[in-house]
Amino acid sequence: MAPMFRTVTSVLLCVSYLFFGFCSADDPYVFYDWNVSYITASPLGVQQQVIAVNGQFPGPIVNATTNNNLVVNVLNNLDEPLLFTWNGIQQRRNSWQDGVLGTNCPIPPRWNWTYQFQLKDQIGSFFYFPSLNFQRAAGGFGGIVLHNRLVIPVPFDKPDGDITLLIGDWYNRDHTALRKALDNGEELGMPDGVLMNGKGPYPYNSTLVPAGIDYETINVQPGKTYRIRVHHVGISTSLNFRIQNHNLLLVETEGSYTMKQNYSSLDIHVGQSYSFLVTMDQNASSDYYIVASARFVNESLWTRVTGVAILHYSNSMGKATGPLPKPPDDYYYKSFSMNQARFIRRNLSTGAARPNPQGSFMYGRINVTDTYVLKNMPPVVIDGKRRTTFNGISYSAPETPLRLADQFELTGIYKIDFPTRTFVQPPRIGTSIINATYKGFLEIIFQNNDTTVQSFHMDGYAFFVVGMDYGNWTENERHQYNNWDAVSRSTAQVFPGAWTAVLVALDNVGVWNIRAANLDTWYLGTETYVKIINSEITDRTELPLPDNVLYCGALASKQKQQDHGTSAAPVAGRRLKVFALMLLFVAIAILF
Ligand SMILES: *[C@@H]1O[C@H](CO)[C@@H](O)[C@H](O)[C@H]1NC(C)=O
Ligand SMILES: *[C@@H]1O[C@H](CO)[C@@H](O)[C@H](O)[C@H]1NC(C)=O
Ligand SMILES: *[C@@H]1O[C@H](CO)[C@@H](O)[C@H](O)[C@H]1NC(C)=O
Ligand SMILES: *[C@@H]1O[C@H](CO)[C@@H](O)[C@H](O)[C@H]1NC(C)=O
Ligand SMILES: *[C@@H]1O[C@H](CO)[C@@H](O)[C@H](O)[C@H]1NC(C)=O
Ligand SMILES: *[C@@H]1O[C@H](CO)[C@@H](O)[C@H](O)[C@H]1NC(C)=O
Ligand SMILES: *[C@@H]1O[C@H](CO)[C@@H](O)[C@H](O)[C@H]1NC(C)=O
Ligand SMILES: *[C@@H]1O[C@H](CO)[C@@H](O)[C@H](O)[C@H]1NC(C)=O
Ligand SMILES: *[C@@H]1O[C@H](CO)[C@@H](O)[C@H](O)[C@H]1NC(C)=O
Ligand SMILES: *[C@@H]1O[C@H](CO)[C@@H](O)[C@H](O)[C@H]1NC(C)=O
Ligand SMILES: *[C@@H]1O[C@H](CO)[C@@H](O)[C@H](O)[C@H]1NC(C)=O
Ligand SMILES: *[C@@H]1O[C@H](CO)[C@@H](O)[C@H](O)[C@H]1NC(C)=O
Predict the structure, then answer these.
(1) Does 422 contact ligand 3 (Cβ within 6 A)?
(2) Superfamily of structural domain 161-328
(3) Can you give the C-alpha Rg of the chain in angstroms?
(4) Strand runs (DSSP E) across 192-280, as ranges?
(5) DSSP letter for each residue of 92-133
(6) If residue 36 lies in a helix (H) or strand (E), which one and from where to where?
(7) Could you report the per-residue pLDDT of 113-142, keeping only the tens digit for each?
(8) Which of 85, 158, 493, 513 could be cross-linked to 459 through a Cys-Cys bond (beta carbons 3.0 to 4.6 Å apart)?
(9) Exposed, middle or buried by CB within 10 Å (0-12, 13-18, 19+), for 66?
């Protein structure tokens, strides 16, 4: 689009949103146009179909500042439905834009749909990804960098650069093949590798890495300090992240500033995000390895599941050589990783998105109003299908999004009877969600009865990760909670045979997804929703239905067809029509 036209549209867009009560006029807008399509790539040397945004894999970085209004116009050029979700972004009062099946109808192939929401009261490192049909295993993901407003102090000096690194386990099969395997009741087996920013490993060992693979290089200047934002966008394998000879100074995780601490390596679980400050304090006798290797597995069998990128000093005198830096050697010491996680603490004396310190919200003094123990188990066979469960219920997404069903007072779409602690026997498939109290204070215990590490994520919120331990949770465990400086984040790991307790203040009205972040576990049914309604009649606690809402399921008849041309020309035509329509709105607005 021509820049001039773009500016005019931006202003008009804002005016027309104002007309519908959407935006706060003084907060700037950030616009993205995303054309989502398949491209072919060979990240591990095998040609396959991946999902690209504007031809890029991974997708472009969303770069914005607290309180900005984000407008993302998504054109779905895949051959299947599409939704993007914004991992860790707390869409205040606006679950309409969350991009999961409980709140949104999928964008049909060849259609476009525009997300619009305010990045309220948050800073930090997050990512987006396509939420349907196992698509994340094929790409479509990208980083979100959410800067603080200039008036807000940051607990470290401004870094010399800002680098996003997306890491994740990867298969050479595309997402449709992986989906088919799961639908057939098969396990996915060992991944074929680990990608870093969509690229395969540097050839650190010619036996292990086939020739001709494109690898990621991070270019740096000696003596400078960079903020490296690492996101685990992968499928199901926990990864150990490290940079040869360099300290990782942890400063932030999913929107909480942490007490600064140096690590030689850190375990990063599926769906988690961390920011490190890394100072280029080594002599440049060579390049250095950046490594993400499979964790809690027999490394001699899993050697191929290792991502390797290159840290290249501008004055480097040679290539990185020799063995990779060693991972933690704790095969027989299962508490190492858990202890590492427990010692990640919030810096209470600094603000995050607001000037008041993170410690001013004394979560430890608030009384819990509801407790849910959410237990997951290894897959079971239900009605002849291999499925996973939460409290014995394997979630089945209805054709009509839950939030839309409520809006139009449709009943019978879901049940609001999710069990607080009991485990439903025998396990069943159903659409059962949690009834929560607006302004309540919810305690959730994730109890992992599976044999692998799982991480769990909640949309619309950050929760305080107050405790984790091996064994079965009982109320006595509350004595060991961290009621003082736990980090607040949106994705927490739960070790096998262990529990993780989180606390969350229910101040964001809407219907919000709680799910396994591990893609296979999620796909097979480990998820539910929390419905948080304000029983007072007011329009302040939740934004109205967006005017571009898509309809489907029982509401499909309300959906107007979209004129979806196959060439670029009709799109331009459509833009002009919308432009004219907006002019009309402006005229009406002026008249009033
Ligand atoms: C979107 O990308 C597809 C595939 O690259 C291309 O064919 C199509 O023309 C693009 N559409 C627009 C509107 O840019
Ligand atoms: C991201 O946004 C910040 C603040 O608006 C700006 O300073 C920076 O240059 C942007 N970075 C990129 C890569 O666009
Ligand atoms: C589709 O894209 C056009 C221009 O790119 C935009 O004007 C229009 O609002 C979009 N339609 C929807 C439903 O988002
Ligand atoms: C905590 O935040 C304060 C205030 O910004 C900062 O001065 C201090 O260095 C931080 N402490 C640690 C350990 O990160
Ligand atoms: C490369 O990897 C193979 C298989 O793990 C190993 O036997 C060999 O020693 C490695 N070579 C080097 C140079 O490290
Ligand atoms: C972290 O390590 C760096 C050297 O890489 C050192 O300068 C710094 O003081 C350490 N910071 C902390 C908080 O330990
Ligand atoms: C640079 O550092 C490496 C690793 O610490 C060391 O082996 C090497 O001798 C150093 N080279 C110079 C020129 O200082
Ligand atoms: C890892 O696997 C190898 C090969 O099967 C086996 O010899 C070794 O004992 C295993 N290591 C551990 C710690 O189980
Ligand atoms: C929390 O509960 C305790 C005991 O039930 C009660 O004494 C206290 O007043 C409550 N605190 C608040 C802030 O409601
Ligand atoms: C859900 O909870 C609210 C109070 O928080 C209560 O008024 C309502 O009856 C509950 N609904 C169901 C179906 O349990
Ligand atoms: C946890 O509870 C289950 C029954 O729900 C029991 O089979 C198991 O042995 C318990 N585990 C521990 C470590 O107590
Ligand atoms: C899972 O639960 C079963 C019985 O309920 C118990 O025997 C087993 O030890 C548990 N496994 C884990 C990893 O928690």
Answers:
(1) no
(2) Cupredoxins -  blue copper proteins (2.60.40.420)
(3) 24
(4) 193-196, 217-220, 225-232, 239-243, 248-253, 256-263, 266-268, 273-279
(5) TT-GGGS-STTT-PPBPTT-EEEEEEE-TT--EEEEEEE-ST
(6) strand 29-41
(7) 999 999 999 999 999 999 999 999 999 999
(8) 513
(9) buried
Nearest atom of ligand 12 to the alpha carbon of 498: 14
Atom of ligand 11 nearest to the CA of 423: 5
DSSP structure class, residue 32: E
Which is more confident, 87 or 20? 87
Q: Is the CB of 420 under 6 A from ligand 5?
A: no
Using left for φ > 0, alpha for ψ between -120 and 50, and beta otherwise, residue 563 falls in: beta
| Identity of residue 467 | G
Whether the predicted pLDDT of 15 surpasses 50:
no
Count other C-beta atoms under 10 Å from residue 184's C-beta.
9
Dihedral angle over CA of 93, 94, 95, 97, nearest 10: -170
Do the beta carbons of residue 60 and residue 113 sit within 8 Å? Answer: no
Report d(CA 103, CA 112) in Å as an integer: 17
**Domain ranges in the chain with CATH number 2.60.40.420:** 27-153, 161-328, 363-532
The reported pLDDT for the residue numbered 51 is 98
Q: How far is the CA of 306 from the centre of ligand 5 (A)?
A: 14
Does the domain made of 363-532 have the CATH classification 3.40.50.620? Answer: no
Domain spanning 27-153, CATH class = mainly beta
Q: Residue 465 in contact with residue 483, Cβ under 8 Å?
A: no
Q: Is the CB of 369 under 6 A from ligand 10?
A: no
Element (H, E) at 175: helix 175-183
Cα-to-chain-centroid distance, residue 550: 23
Ligand 8 neighbourhood includes 20 CB (under 6 angstroms): no
pTM for the whole structure: 0.92
- For the Cβ of 60 lying below 6 angstroms from any atom of ligand 2, the answer is no
Q: Which residue CA neighbors atom 10 of ligand 12 most closely?
A: 449
> CA torsion 122→499→191→393, rounded to 10°?
-90
Encode pLDDT of 554-578 as tens digits: 999 999 988 765 543 334 334 444 4
Ligand 7 site, residue 285, Cβ cutoff 6 A: yes
